[in-house]
């Protein structure tokens, strides 16, 4: 277990360091991805919900944006981690709240701790997931009333929006590739190669 944690830390540290070396053009695409990802969710909230129903834009999405738009090669930023981490953590948070709704000193640590273990077990570790679980047990107003609907909206629906935007902006140039799965990279290379072939044929 210790070796796995140390290895994950080293890989994450290297990936984050590597991301900081990307040129300003790549930072520009990171900016646009985060802007549109969060912007779309905020737009839906502002036009579909009243100010007292602030339930579609949750804080943990901001943390996810740092990973999926700014550190796209990180193992923690991949689609499986983004969606799985948030959804599983939301399930844990809501379930814990059902059993201990009024004991925050117990429900908060239980929600976060169980969500971490579940993400580790399912290989969907995504740090913002801990915040998603915490929100489920510590928020007031509409979120506690949602129950398990919280898992579907805002959590799952918001993750899908962030992911769709990430798939577009993180693959918009040849220097960016997301997700980092080898099969997806091969598919992108084939598409780029096919596009170059067609371009040369048109020139001839």
UniProtKB/TrEMBL annotation:
Residues 22-179 form the HPP transmembrane region domain. Keywords: Membrane, Transmembrane, Transmembrane helix. The chain crosses the membrane at residues 28-49, 55-72, 148-169. Pfam families: TM_HPP. This is HPP family protein.
